[in-house]
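Marked as duplicate of an earlier ticket. Keeping the data here for the record.
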Amino acid sequence: AVAKSSLYTKFVSDHIEITERASSVIGNMYTASIFMALVSLLMHAQEDGIDLTGKSLGFIAYGSGSKSKVFQGEVLSSWNAGIAKMDLKKQLQARKQVDINAYQQLHTGAQQQPLVVSDDIVLTHIESEKETAIGLRTYAQNKA
């Protein structure tokens, strides 16, 4: 009943909806969702001419267990330049759909090379030693 109330829907519309736009196109991202919400907010605020400089933002993320993260951040004056470089719309348009076989090969480490090559981000390492992180891929910004 609360989720259908006008007070709740107005709150979501005024404060949360802008953060959900990107993830509604991407899908379930688990732990990345809180950061995609931030990217979505910044991207759409820039498009709409909203200056977020100096604003405080609240973050909350919860897991399937009894843990959650709650923290606050402040938007720096350089946010506009940073979000412009990211060009999320271009990145989303360049996505490559993978079938279940490719996904499993990536997940297990059988696929060693990236499926999409980028000039901006490069694969630097695939973990093979630490039992809890086998297959973990580490990327870095290409400095070349």
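See parent ticket for discussion. The first helix runs from residue 6 to 26.
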